[in-house]
Amino acid sequence: MDVVGSPESTEEPATNVKFQTLLSLPGCSSPLSLLGTGYREKVFAIIGVKVYAAGLYTNQSILSGLDAWKGQSSQVIQEDSSLFNTIFQARLEKALQIVLVRDLDGKTFWDALDDAISPRIKSPTPVDESALSTFRSIFQGRPLKKGTFIFLTWLDPTKMLISVSSGGLPSAVDATIGSMNVTSALFDVFFGRDPVSPSLKAAVSSGLATMLK
């Protein structure tokens, strides 16, 4: 059994979901390292309900491009949008793992994500609309059970892979998104100035500060 804080896994404390510290994913050239974990909460009738846990993984080579932030505190890193923009722009893999902590209808999941993505795309092009349609089709009419893994993997700033698995790590890619407006909007949803999971961005910032000492 994995132990919290062991080299093999890290536990997200609010949801008790365990994340592997190193992952090999379909479409990625090398294993990805966990930077931090957090959770997404929605408020229903003034009660906060946890919907999923999430963790950000990156190709370890990304850190070599962040020398300008060496020695910075986690708070400085969290508030410096240029650092997260540098991570996004790096032509190296990054993956967001989402683990549902309750049963959810696929349409509900997509609608919540779309509500966050769409306002960030001011003038969608036909390429953007096609990408959003592909994204939507993965989740429409699909029941997402507690424990389902959703991986959003940025291969580079213009291309993202989507994998959904209810039985552990995915073995295949469900869809490929080829719109930089959509891929950048999605990254901004989680790591921009108004993230949907403040706990995730804070944990990733703390992880980066530790690695860049």
Automatic annotation (TrEMBL):
This is Chalcone-flavonone isomerase family protein. Pfam families: Chalcone (PF02431). PANTHER family: FATTY-ACID-BINDING PROTEIN 3, CHLOROPLASTIC. One of its GO terms (cellular component) is chloroplast stroma. Gene3D superfamilies: 1.10.890.20, 3.50.70.10. Transmembrane segments: none annotated. One of its GO terms (molecular function) is intramolecular lyase activity. Residues 16-209 form the Chalcone isomerase domain. One of its GO terms (biological process) is fatty acid metabolic process. It comes from Rhododendron simsii (Sims's rhododendron). Belongs to the chalcone isomerase family.
